[in-house]
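Figure-free illustration: sequence to structure, shown twice.
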Amino acid sequence: MTVAEFPQIALTLVSLYLCLYGPGQAWWSGRHSKVHRPLARLAISATWTTLVGTALAWTGLFSLALVVLVNGTVTLIGYLGSRGSHEDSTHAVRYKRGLGLVVAAVTLALYWPPFETFLYAGDSSAYLISGVHLARTGGLSKQDDLGPRVPPLVRGRIFRSVEQNQLKPPFTRMPGAMVVQSVGASTVWPAFFPAPVVWAALFTEAFGPRQAPGYATLFTALAVWAVWLFARARLSGSAALLVAALVAANGAICWSARFALAEPLAAFFVWCGLLAMGAWERHGSAADARLAGIMLGAAAFARTEFALYVCGALAILALAGDWLGTRGLSKGFYGCLAAMLLATLLESLMVGGAFTSPLTDSLETIHWMLLVLYREHPSAVLSGAGAVTGGGAVLLWALGPRRALLAGALLAFLSAHAYVAEFLPLRSLRWMAAYVGWPALALALAGGWIAWRERRIRPGNAFLLALLAMVAAVLFYNPHVYPALPWAARRFVPVILPAVAILSVLAVSRIARRSLIAALVAVAVLIAGIVPSARPAWRGGYYSGALEQLEEFHQLLPEEGILLLDTRTSTSILGGALWLLHDRNSLPVHPDFSGTGRFEISALVNTLGRSEPVYYVTDAQEKPVEIPRVERTQISNYTFDLPALDFTTFSPPRSHGSYLRHLAIHRLEPRLDPLPERYSGRRQARPISTTCSTEPPAPSARRRSLRARTGRPAEQWRVARPRRAGV
């Protein structure tokens, strides 16, 4: 480190402190809380920074300096208003705190560095390029001067609805990366949740664009710390360390920890919430209840579907609280949770993204489905309505108004999800077993039974079991993800995989009471279940060089002009990356070998190409196809070659492959060809003969056909026009 670098390093450390610890340290004394203060303060600071960063990004005023200024002001106000409360500093507390930091530090070292997922990484590429764009410009949205100029006949073909209803917004502006709220709108938004975009922007400004995915690595390591603390409150120290090791070394968690995604953020917030909820169940501190409400609401802010999971788990606790032996939650919990859910609602309403799931995609069309079903099978619909009414009456009689309402809402949600989603439980279970092994799933079921039996002794297990049941009911039915491993396993990262580790180790700890040898065999089985799938994920270097290759491809492009990108490049997010990182506006078009693609390209070139150059990016290994009224000239080629894991269907990927794509860049110019007669709307004029001939003219093809059908000369079919009188 040189002397010139010291101010920059000091500024970075101050920024990290004010974004990740300062606000929580100033405002959270936690005098009566049983949650470890360093982790609670980290969680509160991260929540506050997420809210502030999202608000600034929406207004177009985002910058690391402004976030640090706001957080510094809030921290200063908190320190000035504090009453000097001090935390306990006994040896036991210091020991637990230090061991937790070691767990987080080792996990962070295992995962670092993150992957450069600027290309060919699906949602991660979209989050990453949107974060770098936010750091560059200070705003989430981007103004589009090209989309409104697209001819109306072509707009409906290339700007497709994200949801199942083609007329319902949002619409894809660049596939997989950006959306618009109406076809041809001039304001473009990132396609997914804004919280990961905000953290990617913060890391971009602090460490550079290469380290932008580092927020996912950091929050996954902090989530492992929270899981260790949760397990430490229920198991022995060695068993809790085994849980942390199983979670940190899991292949799916290790893989997603280095991607710019929303799951790492949600995992950290939800396990902090579970930790606080468990402390509330054991000790009844109102501070822990408030912290649990904030953290569970923050998980919903990071990934919107967690609002459904959390509310469903709370409904289960309210319905079976006496049976499970749980403590009634305080008003502070519900107030903090309601405030965070309100912020989530405002986020989904004001930030134009695609907050979708199988249920939200079809929620507005369910009544049309029922109407069609009623027309085809009215007796079945009426019988179903009668059964629902009767069931509601039974619930009302058996449970009372409040519980009947909760039970009805929970059943309605699960039924609607089952109606609109595809039933995929066996596939989901095979994905789970691919990363933990079938013996681990069996031990987790045994651990769940033990946790339920000990519900009176350890009431803190109740909310974990309720949340786990709610998440499993949705994800096992349909995880709503691209069906390939390791990509699909990220859905199980926030809740299910850590919960399986905790419950399986709980079963092993009960086995150890009877036989130490059997417990050691069970531990060996758990480790053997994760090592084969995790070994490829432990290797680094995936997606290395993506930023350089993107820059090289951009240098090949001419400085000015419109880009038309073959939709087969949509999986690479190339168009979004060029636009958000290099301001190269582009449009997606279907391949030129299809009739739809030739129509789109010809229409765009002959309307937009008369004022500026147009370039077409497509597969270089295919023979160019002639496009009507368009001249094509190839100007250069480029090959993207990024190391990656091969995608598989059910078993974890073992072989190392690469994303290899050969692209060609063509110059397209309008060609003024006469339209064919069938497209012109009128017949072509026949040339007039200047020579005289005594031979009668040959009958036309139409006249010959008329005589063949009727046996009469064609002249007899002529209709005499009446003469106009007076002229």
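We now fold a second protein in the same way, so the two outputs can be compared directly.
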Amino acid sequence: MNLTLQIFLSRLSAALLIMWGGGFVLSAQYARVLTTSGDRTQSLEATTMKAYGNSTDDAIILRPSRTNQEIDGFGYAITYASCYNLLKMPENVRKDLLRKTFSPTDGHGVSYVRISVGCNDFSSDEYTLCDNHDSSDHLRHFSLHSDEIRYVIPILKEILEFNPSLKIIAAPWTPPRWMKYHEERGESPDGDSTGDWTGGRLRPKYYSVYGEYFVKFVKAMEGNGITIYAISPQNEPLNWDNSASCYMPWTDMADFVSQGLAPALKRAGLKTRIYVYDHNYDYDASKGLGQEQYPLKIYQRMGSGFEGEELVAGACYHNYGGKLDDIKEDVIWGDRQDKELIFSEASIGEWNDGRNLWARLSYEMDELVISTLLNRFKASLVWNFMLDTNKSPYRPKGCSTCYGAVDLNASDPSDYTLNSHYYIMAHASDAVKPGAKRIDTEGWWANNLSYAAFLNPDNTTAILLSNQGDTDLDVKVHSNGNTYLMKVPRKGVVSARMDFPTSAVSNIEVADDNGRDVNGIFHDLNGRRVTDPCPGEIYVTSSGDKIKY
């Protein structure tokens, strides 16, 4: 069919009344819908649908006027291992992957990443940023490591080219060894012995010095064009057996933050946010440590009035121990709802059949994204963005059975496979934009279906849906007087960004057979470039006109 005729017919169809629920209504709004199925027959499949009417019968009803917490974003950990694999890829393939992942205009708009301060269990070696100690100038030898300089920073810069608003949270796996002592060996916190990479505690006499260490890190990254949005003082503070680690009970962290870290950041004029816990829901209770209510006890011990207290934003959680329910009563819905919550790490691997999308996709979307967001969390991040198909590289005593959100083919670096963690963060980022607010919902629900809804800064609404059942579900979503019909495949997920305002479809006089107008290629209603337009879809030209192809 001639394109001009198609446009004419599309203009005619825009004026037609469409039947819905026994009545006739004019459809004037559109939604962008992404679908991924557990059997991989649909993989981030994008469709644009019209609102078919305004019926609320058997519909999930969104209430945009009833808002809850603001959303910061979703993302992945950018470790040395991830960057090592990314840099093995052909440049054009790597940049295409990063573009479609992080770009808000040409991709899904993933907006948050996590990095380490010094080494982690997916680094090239054990190191901190000041391994050599000079007693007359404790941090004289501070410097970024080759892992940062040659791998992490170059990849972060590429990501920032696609998403300049990227948020970055950073955490150390260990302080410099000369700052640590081993209580179990009878070492004194006031001594000068050098600790091991694994375990040990931070000496109180170095609280101020360690605070300056973080300042130097933030400024060193700034010097490379990278802003650190937030930090947590210690990754997994109750896991002293990790590859590079430090035991930091809540008393130690409270005193370090209030006496060392927050004052140092404040005096340096930095606005870097501090999250005072970065570990499991159950506080590793099986170890008998007595660390329950860890962040709440920190807030109480620190009190108020210390320098930089406004930088203490909240706490982060992992799901390697316990469940979200473990913190609902006290942390989530207790009396410190002024403090924020972030989900900062989860992994897939051999132990949970992590490459099986049928087993993991809808479950992970519910557990890591929908359930956390329904419980006041502002962000959700998963572990390694990329490992290869051999689960490499990783460090001794680190995870040898982990998979990345993306698996790079170890035999062909131009080939990769997306796993559940990639999909859930891409889905969430595509629909729910930074600064969005979670909103209330009412109405219809079904067994095995979970969902959460949002109001974006541009007044579009969004919904995330997860179907853990064995049957496809037809779901009606009602938003701002418009009702959309979505199919959520069994063991699949759907994300939708709704209520894009539409105007009359404009005529384009000149276009070639590939759907390109004289001024450039088409864009979808979310502003993403389209190189292979589909008949019947609505597109926006580079000059801003809307057409139906």
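Summary for the second example: DSSP finds ten helices and 30 strands in the chain.
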